[in-house]
Amino acid sequence: MLKLMRDQFKNLKIVLWFVVVVFVLLIFVDWGTGRQSGRGMANFAAQVGDVIVTEAQFLKELRSTEDRYRQMYGQQFETVRDQIDFATLTVQNLIDRELLVKKARAMGLAVSDKEVLDRILSFEVFRREDGSFVGEELYNRILRVNNTSPEEFEASLRRDMLIEKLQQAFTAGISLPDAEVEREYRKRNESANFEVGFVGIETVINEVSVSDADVRRYYDEHRQEFDRPEQRALQYLLVDDARLRRALTISDAQIAEYYAAHANEFQRAEEVRASHILVGPAGEGEEARRAAAARARALYARAIAPGADFAALAREASDDPGSKDSGGDLGWFGRGRMVKEFEEAVFALKVGEVSQPVESQFGFHVIKLTDRRGAGQQSLEEVREIIRQRLAEGLAEGEGSRRAQALREKIDAAKLKTAEQWQELAVADEVVSSNVTPLFGVTDPMIPGLGRDPELLAEVSMAKEGFVGGPRRSSRGWIVYRVSQVRKAGVLPFEEAKESAMEAVRRRQAVALLRQRVAEATTGVVGDGLAAVAARLGGRVQAVTDHRRGAPIPGVGMAPALEEAVFATPVGGVTPVVAIGERGVAFARVNSKKEIDPQAFAREKSSLRESMLQDEVQKVISSFVAQARRNHKVTVNAEVVDRYKPRRG
User: I want to staple 622 with a disulfide (CB 3.0 to 4.6 A). Which of 209, 331, 455, 530 is the partner?
Assistant: First the structure.
């Protein structure tokens, strides 16, 4: 590499190197960690196949990891430092890095000397003012000051660039259709308020009779339902995030210290609160537009009349389903949230003032400014709970990892193998629970109770009954798990499947009967009559507020078909009766909806796609790493790693 540089830059003069070193000390967070000599530094920290991770490499990466966390937590770093096992985190990251490098090379990926050279020249510290290379002598000095050599630095750079190429290769293999991006945007931004009625099949199940012939026919026609892949069940001890956060004590002094150190995070932009009445054209063309404008002017006249009730007028006349029922209230918002015409008008108003009709792509708006608050610093009292939650989350992460590691050590030391022994561990700690999953297939998209975790699925797919794994992070907290049951693949014989087939037939027939009965009973019913109908049929109706796409519906559970019906039904309308699996049927009356702003979606679509893409890439990488750990011999030198773990007590 230096020869290539000499060939291209042999005529360059060297600038004053000590000026550049100042920049190095600021930029080289990952390299400027120094070395130590002495006892043990020749030992290895880990081995991945034939690759050795030395203790010196481990220590350098450990310090770099601590530096990154110090930058994230600021003055709070010393508070959380002893709660995070940086040593284990670091050695696992190093192992993952080597596995990714092996994968990249196996795929034929490589980084040329020219690419490394271009990357070196991308660092300002290695360039003169005219963009040319600083020269071999200064290059060597800069690296020497940071306790590394050109060979080490370039090898590290080449490795990181190789992993970047692997990530790019993974990214190129992932496609995110526009429809999927829009679905995710709707999931994040749309909501609805409605009343949902549910009637369970237990109200009609006894009216259904099933013959042996029905059951046999169902089994023969649905053999795929009884073709079981190899399945596993897990017992796991969960260090519950929510319980742990509640158990942690965050002092007022810690909150005040965080507030002082992160004051810039609590700046509030100017915001207004407004209500509006929307008048949309009744059709296409200039005539419809003029009619809407005339109606808006008439509503404006009523809105500014003495004693006028703007909220009542909005509920009576507004065409905006998202705000009509709340008297036109749009809540608090800042600049950049509304269409240009609306924003200019509302920010020009005084509190209590009503605007002349304002035209936008949606129609004509009559706007009332109800409140305003200027830009400035949020007070400590305003953000106290936000800070408390942030600190609790940070402390809980380290404490959860520590407790999960302690559980694993107890299990290994005492060779705890039974469900009862694991349950006793949970009883002894108020933030730990013992859980057992239903049987699941290794090709299932998620693990019941633990959600989508490709890495964990890949790990347990190769594990035998009794295998113990963890600690590892889950969406609910840190877990230690064991494979409590393995059921082999195959189609269940009819005699074994008969009971399940009979129940399936009974439930299907009951759902069909119930769906017809409920549809007939709810036809034409309005107002509070829905609750009476549901009660008469043995069901119930309950209010659902601020429902977001993809969330469970209270009293019903996950119901994509009902959810789609809710968002497709006009405000004030009743959805069709929808089957909820084989449990019963449901319907809903839509009270209000908050729908997406097409302009906002157009603005945010690109960044959302990128975020979703990165999430998918990370899942692919996590799954690959889990598989690679099984295919390569990985050894961790516990004696070396333990030497750098936090000391407690």
Answer: 455
Distance CA 36, CA 62 (A): 13
Q: How many angstroms separate the CA atoms of 391 and 245, rounded?
A: 9
**pLDDT tens per residue across span 295-351:** 999 999 999 999 999 999 999 999 988 889 999 999 888 888 888 899 999 999 999
3-state secondary structure of 198: strand
Q: Is the CATH code 3.40.50.720 the one for domain 2-173+629-642?
A: no
CATH number of 191-227+496-595, picked from 1.25.40, 1.10.260, 3.10.50, 1.10.3470: 3.10.50
DSSP letter at 233 equals E
Among 182-186, 486-490, 518-522, the least confident range: 486-490
CATH code for 270-374? 3.10.50.40
**Rounded to whole angstroms, how far apart are CA atoms 511 and 580?**
9
Residue 285: is its pLDDT beyond 50?
yes
How many CA atoms within 13 Å lie on the side-chain side of 28? 25
d(CA 640, CA 108): 34
Strand partners, 496: none
> 430 near 238, Cβ under 8 Å?
no
Residues 261-272, mean pLDDT to the nearest whole number: 84
The C-alpha atoms of residue 3 and residue 200 are separated, in whole angstroms, by: 78
Report the distance separating Cα 210 and Cα 511, nearest Å.
14
User: How many CB atoms neighbour CB 526 within 10 A?
Assistant: 11
What are the sequence ranges of the domains in the chain? 2-173+629-642, 191-227+496-595, 232-262+380-488, 270-374
pTM above 0.70, yes or no: no
- So what CATH class is 232-262+380-488? alpha beta
Type of residue at 319 = D
CA neighbours within 13 Å on the CB side: how many for 452?
7
**Contacts for 584 with CB less than 8 Å, ≥ 6 apart:** 198, 199, 200, 201, 202, 511, 514, 539
Residue that has been written with the tokens 């009979």 in this structure:
502
Tokens of 649: 């007590």
d(CA 550, CA 187): 6
Q: Does residue 338 come out as left (phi exceeding 0), alpha (psi in the -120 to 50 range) or beta?
A: beta
My answer on whether omega of the bond before 321 falls inside 30° of 0, hence cis, is: no
- Is 299 in contact with 313 (CB distance < 8 Å)? yes
Those residues with Cβ within 8 angstroms of residue 645's Cβ, 6 or more apart along the chain or in another chain? 85, 87, 88
Tracing tokens 């300002």 back to the chain, one arrives at 124
Measured CA to CA, the distance from residue 105 to residue 94 in angstroms comes to 17
**Rounded to the nearest 5°, which phi and psi values hold at 485?**
-155, 140
